[in-house]
Amino acid sequence: METLLPTLLTIITAATPLLYAALGEMVTEKSGVLNLGVEGMMLVGAVVAFAAMHATGSASVAILAGLLAGAALSSIFAVLVLGFQSSQVATGLALTIFGIGLSALLGQGLVGVAYNGLPKLPIPFLSEIPFLGPLLFDHDILVYGSFVAVPLVAWFLARTRPGLVLRAVGNSHDAAHAIGYPVLRIRFLAILFGGAMAGIAGAYLSLAYSPLWIENMSAGRGWIALALVVFATWRPWRVLAGAYLFGGITILQLHAQAIGVGVPPQVMSMLPYVATIVVLVLISRDQNKIKLNAPGCIGKPFHPTA
Amino acid sequence: MSASPEPATAPLLELRGMTRSFPGVLANDQVDLSIAPGEIHALLGENGAGKSTLVKMIYGILKPDAGEILWKGEVTEIPSPAFARDLGIAMVFQHFSLFDSLTVFENIILGMDAGEDSARLRRDIAEISARYGLPLDPDRHVYTLSVGERQRIEIIRCLLLKPALLVMDEPTSVLTPQEVDQLFETLRQLADEGMSILYISHKLAEIKALCSHATILRGGRVVDSVAVDQETPATLAAKMMGAALAAEPEPGERVPGETRLALENLTLDAADEFGIPLRNISLQVRGGEILGIAGVAGNGQDELLKAISGETRATPGAVRIDGNDCGHLGPNDRRMLGLATIPEERLGHGAVPGIDLTGNGLLTAFRRLKLATRGFIHWGASGRFADSVVERFRVKASGNRAPADSLSGGNLQKFIVGREICQDPELLVVSQPTWGVDAGAARTIHDALRALAARGTAVLVISQDLDELMRISHRIAAICAGSVSATYRVGDVSAEQIGLLMAGTAELDGVEAVHAA
């Protein structure tokens, strides 16, 4: 019991950036666009948020800066794939490589600077409940935000008209265009949302998870977030489950290393990534689930002239 | 409508000099057209005559290069589909603009203006369903529906807008004869209530049955505008095609031959949730005969073709070619037994889009015609093979180096059919041989199939076009939900009776089934 609470708390911190990035990417993919640039957008979000913290000392300005940076990077992607109909796969990969380089450049002067991380905002009374209080009601703003984001996105997609239109555009852009929906504008907004969420995920890494800037600090989390979307078969509540599952594996391997399980630490750090591959293989065995929920037009460019 | 100050004879919609070009093609050239209120007006023409382009301009999807649209007597520009809907123009598309993974209700509400009250919309849907005989469950997912049911969604979606003009683009190409009758009844009822209908088709019998006026397009121009009751299907056909095609010959007496293909209790699970399981299919095709399999799209035609071609393996004994059990063999081994197959989808299944005709010829012929031996390709012989197909089937292409996707649909179909026929198969299985090709190319393909059968080849034709099957087959059966009905001599059954088989009746009362020749 004494180690359980700290373990669960670290799982929450490990899962939060995955949850933001995967939720954003899920919405982008629901509109029919595959953006492989999540890793790059996270890194740029992380460095810009950290720089803003360094310059202003304000956590809210820093988070907003990370969000805008992720959205700005995704807008480059949007212009290329929507405006110029470049390949989504190639452009997304390029975006990641660009983001890694750009974040390293921007972060040159920031290496070695450290902060205390985002302030905790305990909710009065609720946070005093034994065990549950510290587990659920004593977090920073971004963790609370991630708790709220899942039901919000789920509600938006399932219950609102714009959510329905977004799903329709992802399911068949030609049909949506024929009815008269602005396919490209809707996809642009979905890409921006994905970028902003990846930016927030990055901001959480550099402001809260480990409040400092290290080059390439997202360490493949963007790719795990992409895998999570498939793992979740494009459903928000499963993204939540998946993010916590992978966060859990990340933390468990750290604890296992600390206890001194007789396995080389390199093998242990491979665990989350190995788990990603294993889970994807298991999920892909059931093609029906994927077909039913996958956006029909994902990855296909839309030519509005037709 | 009745509130309109115009006299009843004033046109609802008038087009003057509509012109639209695409790179290299003048799709519409000075097209005029006029539709009166309550009139069912046919727009008649072959594939590629420019019907779709014209309709897209009426519905605001395409902008005309020149010409004007008069709506209720006033010059109107239609910049978008939403604007067309506001005017009172609704459209049922040929390829349905539906979202497979959404429900019927979600599909309908997507076509409505924002802020529609969903409870009221549900009531309206139920009311229109009942009034026009269009039954539909709003909470089902579209991918579970038949093509006819999908069309009902489109029609209900249009009727909810209470349009003054309903545009229907080739609505019957996917329906059973019974469904066609039901649709016509709905359309007549709508016209009686004052709605104008622009009915696009190349099926002459339908136009005779339904429409009062017809505008005939050929090569992007209006060749004539006629009162339908003054015309016969033959005169309409001549105007549509520019030259009268000689009547197709009756299916001749069949020369009974050996059983080439025998399916025995062929049963296969569906490959995925969208697939159809095959259930206990037994049939034989003999040398020298054409067996037609009718059916509405999505009833297992693809699955049946793949089980015969070898793309999916079958249980031992279920598929025999010339008596050889070949359920475990792949496509190439079955080809060596004398089988040739032509799938429905031309690009991506029948041919590789980006590869030239030589390469596409090579892909199915390399073993039978020894175009590749010991792992090396004989390009010279392959090129000559492609040339021979192009010449024999009069394929319009810039040569054997032309990529498959540079050919028009009809020409590519001629090439694919020719590629298989030129390999002298003993057994040919073909799905939708003339889907989306013009009448001239369809005729070439029909003649080639007849000639092949006359030489002793067994031919199995799977088609949604019942007229086609009635013209070329000796025997006919229907596929429904993965089961194949009993088989009948074509002369013994009517189109309506085959419609019953297509709807799932296993056997007809009072008609003798002929399982083997």
Question: Mind explaining what this structure looks like?
Answer:
The complex is a heterodimer of chains A (306) and B (517). Chain A starts with a helix and ends in a 13-residue tail after the last helix. Helix content of chain A is 72%, strand content 1%. Chain A has a single domain (4-109, 132-293), classed as ABC transporter involved in vitamin B12 uptake, BtuC (Orthogonal Bundle). Chain A has a two-stranded antiparallel sheet. Chain A is mainly α and 306 residues long. The longest helix of chain B is centred in the middle third of the chain and has 16 residues, at 177-192. Mean pLDDT of chain B is 86; it is low at 1-7. Chain B folds into two domains: 13-241, Rossmann fold, CATH 3.40.50; 259-344 and 418-502, Rossmann fold (3-Layer(aba) Sandwich), CATH 3.40.50. In chain B, strands 13, 16, 19, 20, 21, 22 and 23 form a seven-stranded mixed β-sheet that branches. Chain B has a six-stranded mixed β-sheet with strand order 6-7-8-3-9-10, with helices on both faces. A four-stranded antiparallel β-sheet of chain B has the order 2-1-4-5, with helices on one face. Chain B has 517 residues and is α/β, with parallel strands linked by helices. Chain B is globular and about 70 Å long. In chain B, a hairpin with a 2-residue loop joins strand 1 and strand 2. In chain B, helix 11 (357-365) packs across helix 12 (379-392). The interface between A and B is medium-sized, with 20 and 21 residues.
Output the radius of gyration of chain A: 19 Å
Q: Could you name the ranges of chain A where pLDDT drops below 50 across 5 or more consecutive residues?
A: none
Tell me the count of domains of chain B: 2
- How many beta-strand runs of chain B? 23
Q: Which superfamily, in CATH terms, is the homologous superfamily of the largest domain in chain B?
A: P-loop containing nucleotide triphosphate hydrolases
Shape type of chain B: globular
State the order of secondary-structure elements of chain A, H for helix, E for strand: HHHHEHEHHHHHHHH
Helix content of chain B: 25-40%
Q: Report the β-strand fraction of chain A as a percent range.
A: under 5%
Structural class by helix and strand composition of chain A = mainly alpha
- Radius of gyration of chain B, taken over Cα atoms and rounded to an integer in Å: 24 Å
